[in-house]
Amino acid sequence: LQFTEEKLGQAEKTELDAHFENLLARADCTKNWTEKILRQTEVLLQPNPSARVEEFLYEKLDRKVPSRVTNGELLAQYMTEAANDFGPGTPYGKTLIKVGETQRRLGAAEREFIRSASISFLTPLRNFLEGDWKTISKERRILQNRRLDLDACKARLKKAKAAEAKAAVTP
């Protein structure tokens, strides 16, 4: 009732401290940017949407995500196979082996980067959203309910004083 009357402008609303309001606004801003950064980093690390969905499902089921061959590693594999077909002693075969080995190292570095970024960067962001932010939201709801209770009590007290004053005036 108090909430509805406040929204309709029929009841007074106790304002929170300006510093506290600023903290709440900063918390909201932090949450929004953290979600955007998390999503975009996931897109950067895994551009394939179906693979991202698969990884998400494995995470939610608390299962280990199967290891995938990176595009660089796959290219390295093809180059090595082609070099073996052409003959490792031919100039083209030697070149394919050398470039294939470089691609394999690049693919392994990419895999390590993805693993490292997931552990060092994405995990703290997820921990904030799934832990700290949920706590902030819960405490915010509790504070809002307490404020509404306080305002409802203030309104009842005001009405009681008005009724008491009216009763004192009318004999």
Automatic annotation (TrEMBL):
The keyword Kinase does not apply. Residues 5-171 form the BAR domain. Transmembrane segments: none annotated. Coiled coil: none annotated. GO terms for biological process: membrane organization. Pfam families: BAR. InterPro entries: AH/BAR_dom_sf (IPR027267), BAR_dom (IPR004148), Endophilin_SH3RF (IPR050384). It comes from the Eukaryota. Signal peptide: none annotated. PROSITE patterns: BAR. Keywords: Coiled coil, Cytoplasm. GO terms for cellular component: cytoplasm; membrane. Gene3D superfamilies: Arfaptin homology (AH) domain/BAR domain (1.20.1270.60). Belongs to the endophilin family. PANTHER family: DREBRIN-LIKE PROTEIN-RELATED, SH3 DOMAIN-CONTAINING. This is SHLB2 protein. It comes from Peucedramus taeniatus (Olive warbler). The gene is Sh3glb2_1.
